[in-house]
Amino acid sequence: MEVFRNWAGNYKYSTSHLHVPENTEQVQELVARCGRIKVLGTRHSFNGISDSTENLLSLQKLNRVIALDRTSSRVTIEAGVRYGELCQYLHSNGYALHNLASLPHITVVGACATATHGSGDLNGNLATAVHSLEVIKANGETIVFSRDQQDGVFDGTVVGLGGLGVVTKMTLDILPEFQMSQQVYDNLPLVQLKDHFDDIFSSAYSVSLFTDWKNATFNQVWIKQKTTNQSSDPMEPEFFGAARATARRHPVPGQTSENCTEQMGIPGPWYERMPHFRMDFTPSAGEELQSEYFVSRHDAYQALCAIDQIREYISPLLYVSEVRTIAKDELWMSPCYKQESVAIHFTWKPNWEAVQKVLPIIEEKLAPFHARPHWSKLFAMQPEQLHSLYEKLPDFQQLLLRCDPEGKFRNDYLNKYIMGN
Ligand SMILES: Cc1cc2nc3c(=O)[nH]c(=O)nc-3n(C[C@H](O)[C@H](O)[C@H](O)COP(=O)(O)OP(=O)(O)OC[C@H]3O[C@@H](n4cnc5c(N)ncnc54)[C@H](O)[C@@H]3O)c2cc1C
User: Fold this and answer.
1) pTM greater than the 0.85 cutoff
2) 20 to 30 A Cα–Cα from 46, which one of 267, 292, 380, 408?
3) How far is the CA of 112 from the centre of ligand 1 (A)?
4) Confidence at residue 2, expressed as pLDDT on a 0 to 100 scale
5) Which of 376, 377, 410 to mutate for ligand 1's pocket (most ligand atoms within 8 Å of CB)?
């Protein structure tokens, strides 16, 4: 039997029984017929969040942009659409999205389901752009959840962790298209964040800091700003003690910058600057593991100092670590629910045996800051601790029970971390 794995290759799905329907009617019929079923996006999650022991469903053939509504500035897509495809469509029609993750390869629906985010003080995670979603429930019936509905349930549906049913369509808010440029600086001392955290992160539309934790220094600062210039934006020689990069960079030491979006202040379309990685190239390191923790912006410097204290455990296992800011939102299961947030991310070498020993050490250090793990990455936290971090969890549990009373879309991950059984 074919073994079926996630993108990074670290997770083996429990079945290779994959359905690839051609249209929504076939999805409805399948859902009504199957005992248990889970949807796969592009399989970029690192844990068992999309696993099923019985049936996996890919919507890769449902990949059309359905409507562009210029009056209300919204676009409606089918659930197989990936950001890379949507971005090109939007740009060619004069529109943009407010933010993107580090890579454009992922599906919009799969990314929103796990509260995937980019960076930027004023940018909510990608799910905050969702205006409505169409879901096929366990009985095969279709239901639409929309921000316009007054019952407040919509905020529970968007970061749905794949538990509500099969999302078949999604409508997103869009913006007029804009140009951006990207600049990289080398070697920002961690201590600069003590007094200049806000100055550094509010200096541009989107800012990312990268470190290998070999020292108390960020090896790279990536600054993505909106621009109206036709030629390269001028770069200051210094940025809070960091020096202007003299050549293009890849965040992971030793990897080629060819895989990365254009830097050196050269202007270009929003979607070719906001992600770090280019659509037609391998993102990040390839064979890797990832973990990420969200803390309140207020605690971010202290949290980073706490990580700095254990960098001798982290650094040998690490490709690179990234720090980003995310605006607060109202989405029940978002790690940024009602909290201006900072995400501390780790791209690990593919050595799970060693990484799984270091995750509890990181989590212990971050526990005083009530750190919430990224839903789709690797963490060690016990369910009870995770539950205590989400005040809307009881409402979300009720919502899942309402949409899926028999647990057709539940799996070990959801049973353990959400339903608590
Ligand atoms: C190289 C790399 C870089 C990354 N960069 C970032 C980053 O910058 N920021 C960040 O926050 N995350 C990042 N991630 C994590 C990634 O964004 C998330 O794992 C995201 O959920 C992946 O989307 P996907 O399409 O692969 O969905 P999958 O991983 O396949 O699925 C994710 C969840 O969505 C559900 N789902 C998917 N489609 C549907 C549907 N139609 N209906 C119902 N449920 C559905 C699945 O069941 C599952 O629960 C990165 C991952 C990788 C591998």
Assistant:
1) yes
2) 408
3) 8
4) 64
5) 376
